[in-house]
Design goal:
Blueprint: H1 34-41, H2 53-63, H3 89-103, H4 112-123, H5 131-148, H6 153-166
Helix pairs in contact: 4-5, 5-6
Length: 176
């Protein structure tokens, strides 16, 4: 419908014409993968009334140990002490896509939050066959990522030391 305002003598006042406009359709919402929804549900379905962030992270990490994604996420995430639960669905899918590439040997800079999440998984032996496997992965990832983002290098020795001591690996590794 078009409205025109006319003066009492029939003259038009201004050229403002108002009418209906079509509302553009919204793009369809992206489907969240089933395993990601299951992982998110662990927050609400725990048998304990209260669980720590680290306990929840470990449960979620074990569930997602073999999950791979190919989601196109180009952003970076910058959070202190990130967990899966602190990321949005697109950020989380971006993380699992990035982790898939890292596990295949293609390390790219994506912000310390993704790197820290991956290290937390390694420290918990998620996706590893043994503590030594975790140490080797951590060591090689730290060197590769450190070449892209030297910020990780200031934490790497502490993470390696913690892994060696906690899992009782050879003290000779502390010398490296």
């Amino acid at each position: 419908m078009v409205w025109e305002w006319r003066l009492a003598d029939g003259r038009r006042r201004g050229r403002n014409l108002y009418g209906d406009e079509a509302i553009p359709p919204q793009p369809p919402a992206e489907k969240t993968p089933k395993l990601l929804r299951a992982m998110r549900s662990l927050v609400k379905t725990s048998t304990n009334f209260w669980q720590s962030r680290s306990e929840l992270f470990l449960k979620q990490a074990r569930l997602m140990a073999n999950y791979e994604d190919d989601y196109d996420y180009r952003g970076t995430v910058n959070q202190y002490f990130p967990t899966y639960d602190s990321l949005t669905d697109p950020e989380l899918r971006g993380y699992f896509t990035w982790r898939t590439k890292v596990r295949r040997g293609a390390v790219e800079r994506r912000g310390m939050s993704y790197a820290a999440l991956y290290v937390y998984e390694l420290l918990a032996l998620v996706g590893c066959t043994s503590p030594m496997d975790a140490y080797e992965r951590l060591h090689s990832f730290g060197r590769a990522y450190g070449a892209l983002d030297p910020q990780i290098l200031r934490y790497l020795k502490d993470w390696e030391r913690a892994l060696i001591i906690y899992y009782g690996l050879s003290p000779a590794l502390l010398e490296e």
